[in-house]
Amino acid sequence: MIFFKTKRWSRKKQAIFFKQLGQLIKAGYSLNRALILLSVILNKECTVIITMQKQLQDTANLPEILKPYVHRSIVRELSFVNLHGNLTGYLTELGERIDRQVRQENRLRQLMYYPVFLIVITLIIACFFAMYLLPLLDISETFSGLNILIKVLYLTVVIFGIVIYGYKVKFARLSKLTQLKWLLKLPYFGQLLRLYFSNRVALHLALLFENGVGLIQIIEYCRKCEDNPLLMESAQLASLELQKGDSLVTLLTNSQLFSPQLAHIFQQGKRQNEIGEDLLRIARNDFTHFEQKLNQLFVLIQPTIFIVVAAVIVWLYMMLLTPMYGEMEALLAS
Fold it and tell me: What is the DSSP letter of 43?
């Protein structure tokens, strides 16, 4: 047991750890021996990994050992290893997935540096205009523009407050499965979420089927996962529908939670291990599509911010210059 406060690893550290651990186990290392070698390779985390290795010798399972250092979603996914036993396959997929997510986050961060800098500069300019330049003009038209800006900001705060209230009072009280169904209805974001969720389900079903775990056994196991409400509710719903006589294909199609390819795999009458192989390819394909859609979103973010910032700057200058030109015309006319 760890008695001191632990710090969760960054995504980058998690990616390196799982990727190298998967490679070592794939090369024939036992989990215990792999952790000992990793304590040498990842010398900055030597103390932590040695602690893990000692806990493993005390019959603690891997999800419990990793719980203080990785995200809880990974701990939940690792619990499936107890069911299918394919630690190598899962760790390899997990390491590659986190590594790609880290690259996506780095790319988004790089894309946002310059736009965020522009937004900060624009806000500083807007405050300077509002506090110093506009009051000096003392012209009602100018202040009407400033009033519009204040009203827009006020409306934004009100809308944000309504959204937070709706989430706390209404959305958060819904079941996890109902929440997911609502989120899947959102434009574009719903497509991303469906691909991501479908990828997770397909990956674990693939590993389970490839290692001979039957569908009924999977559902019964998931029904007991109280630490994962979404998984538990989905398994309970699946159990009820199958008891009514519905097929798995009908269940997957009607749920609208997964990509269409997932249901199609079960229509072909293949053996369980072949279904597992196909599901693994579907999982990788879904994640590739997820990345493509995410990249499309990244491409749109920066130009959109530039357009908004440019529009605000032009509007500020119009607020300043329009009354000045009006005064000049009045002077020339007199």
Answer: G
